Amino acid sequence: MTEPLPPVLLVGCGKMGGAMLSGWLERGLSRAVVVEPHGPAAAAFAGDPVVRVVATPEAIPAGFTPAAVVLAIKPQEADAALPAYARFAGPDTVFLSIMAGRTVAAIRRGVGEDAAVVRAMPNTPAAIRRGFTVACAGPGVTAAQRALCGALLAAVGEVAWVGKEELLDPVTAVSGGGPAYVFLLAEVMEAAAVEQGIPRDLARRMVRATVSGAGALLAASDEEAAELRRAVTSPKGTTERALAVLMAPDAWPALMSRAIAAATARARELAG
Ligand SMILES: NC(=O)C1=CN([C@@H]2O[C@H](COP(=O)(O)OP(=O)(O)OC[C@H]3O[C@@H](n4cnc5c(N)ncnc54)[C@H](OP(=O)(O)O)[C@@H]3O)[C@@H](O)[C@H]2O)C=CC1
Ligand SMILES: O=C(O)[C@@H]1CCC=N1
Fold first, then answer.
1. What number of other Cβ atoms are within 10 A of residue 235's Cβ?
2. Domains in the chain, start-ordered, CATH in brackets?
3. Pocket of ligand 2 (CB under 6 A)
4. Rounded-to-integer distance, Cα 197 and Cα 210, Å
5. CA of 15 to the centre of ligand 1 (A)
6. What is the ipTM of this complex?
7. Burial readout 81-108 (b: 16 or more C-beta within 10 A, e: otherwise)
8. pLDDT tens for residues 111-170?
9. Best residue for ligand 2 mutational test, from 172, 183, 269 (most atoms within 8 Å of Cβ)
C-alpha cells in the first residue's frame, strides 16, 4: 500500500493535465484543485469527490495549501498566468512545470525568484500510464520535493532525471513530440496500404496492430532497434527493397535529424 499523494493544484486541465490528473486519482490523490477556465477535459473531473474545478486562481478555496502546483498550461500563456500563483511559493510547495521550452529561470520570474521549480517533459501515452517523462530539478528543490514530483510523474509512466536543464529541449523534441511522429507513421503507412489496393478497414487494423506490436516487441526486447529491424529484413527479400528507399541518404535518417533539430530549436524559442 503506497501513501496517498498530497494535495495538488493543477493549472490547466487540457490533454496533458487531464491525463496526469486521472493517473494521480488512480494512485490515491488526497485532494486537487484544478484551475481551468474553459477546457472540456476538466468537466470529466467535476463530479470527483476529491477534485474541485475552478475557473480562475481567485476562486481557489482559501486555506488550500498544495504540496505541488503543476503548471500544465501552454508556455505562451505562462507570463500572464504565473504571477497569480506566486502566493504559493514557499518551503511547503514545489512547482512542477510540464511546459515545453519554458525554463526554470523564466518560471521563477513569474512565481518568485526563490520558488522551488521542477521542469519536466512527459508525453501523451501518460493517458494509459505508459508515458515517459524526463525531469530536471531547479535550484533549491529539496529531496522531498523531488520525490513528490517523481511520484506524480511516475503515476503516469516511467521517469528519468537529468542534471542539465538544457537537455529538456531535445527531450521535448524526441519523447515529448515522439508519439506524433509514430502516429504520422501509422497515417502514411495506412495511406500507402490503401494505394496498393488493401481495403481501408483492413489497412487500418493492420497498421495499428503492426505499429503497436512492433512497439511492444521493442519494449519487451533487450536487442537494439537496428537488430530487430535486421531480423525482419531477409536478404534479397521485400523489406530490403523498402528500406533501400527509407534509408536513402536524404530519406528517414536525414529527415528525422532535421525534424528533431527543428523541434529542439522551437523549444528554445519558448524559453521565455
Ligand atoms: N500535448 C502533449 O503531447 C504534451 C504537452 N506538453 C505541455 O503541456 C502543456 C499543455 O499542453 P496540452 O495539454 O497539450 O494543451 P491543452 O491546450 O490541451 O491544455 C491546456 C489547458 O489550459 C487551459 N488554460 C489556458 N489558459 C489557462 C490559465 N490561465 N489557467 C488555467 N488553464 C488555462 C486551456 O484552455 P483553452 O484551451 O481554452 O485555452 C487548456 O484547456 C503545454 O505547455 C505543453 O507544452 C508536454 C508534453 C506533451
Ligand atoms: O508540441 C508541443 O509543443 C508539445 C510539447 C511536446 C508535445 N507537445
1. 5
2. 8-168 (3.40.50.720), 178-269 (1.10.3730.10)
3. 100, 172, 176-177
4. 18
5. 7
6. 0.99
7. bbebbeebbeeebbbbbbbbbbbbebbb
8. 999 999 999 999 999 999 999 999 999 999 999 999 999 999 999 999 999 999 999 999
9. 172
